[in-house]
Specification:
The protein has eight helices and ten strands. It has helices at residues 13-19, 36-47, 67-77, 112-121, 123-128, 136-141, 147-153, 162-171, and strands spanning 4-6, 9-11, 52-54, 60-62, 81-86, 88-93, 98-103, 108-110, 133-135, 175-179. α2 (36-47) packs antiparallel against α7.
């Protein structure tokens, strides 16, 4: 079981989530053999009854511990924000490789179209999109969860369409708050 060093102590992700047990958090642990299509089906099944949605892979990290709390606070306060992103980090740890890389973003509120430009031009904004906290309503309004059907029906590569279905469509529903 992978462990994370948190304030000098080692925990696995499931232990940490269980420590913060709350009806507000729905934690799902997926088998590594699931493809993106299957994972999105699980996300949809487990998320439609909530207000907000976020997915974070086990190799991605929020650079600030209060990202989820602060992101939801901003979404609650401003209905013109479609989603929030934060600075992030990605890592790989195994028997042969051990590295980590940070992707800092500036703190600012941008129009959806301006976010698309940042996303297309800057690697930090591309990777930090993995820290997105989205409104479920916008996911449903833009058919984001139906990406699986398109992938399967068109024999597209697994993962195809995630950017255009999730980040691009949601950026057109309002502003994007970048929390550096």
């Amino acid at each position: 079981t992978k462990t994370d060093n948190i304030n000098g102590k080692f925990f696995n992700t499931e232990e940490v989530v269980n420590y913060f047990s709350s009806k507000k958090i729905n934690y799902s642990k997926f088998n590594r053999n699931l493809n993106w299509s299957e994972i999105f089906n699980e996300y949809q099944k487990n998320s439609e009854n909530f207000k907000y949605f976020s997915f974070l892979s086990d190799d991605d990290i929020f650079l600030k511990n209060d990202t989820i709390r602060d992101g939801i606070k901003h979404l609650e306060e401003d209905n013109n924000i479609s989603f929030v992103l934060s600075s992030s980090s990605i890592f790989q740890e195994d028997d042969q490789v051990n590295w980590e890389r940070e992707f800092p973003v500036d703190t600012k509120l941008v129009k959806g179209n301006d976010y698309l430009k940042l996303f297309c031009k800057t690697e930090a904004y591309q990777h930090s999109s993995t820290t997105g906290i989205f409104r479920i309503k916008n996911f449903l309004d833009t058919d984001c969860f139906k990406v699986n059907k398109i992938i399967n029906n068109n024999n597209l590569q697994v993962g195809y369409g995630i950017d255009s279905r999730v980040y691009f469509r949601n950026s057109l529903k309002g502003n994007v708050l970048l929390m550096g």
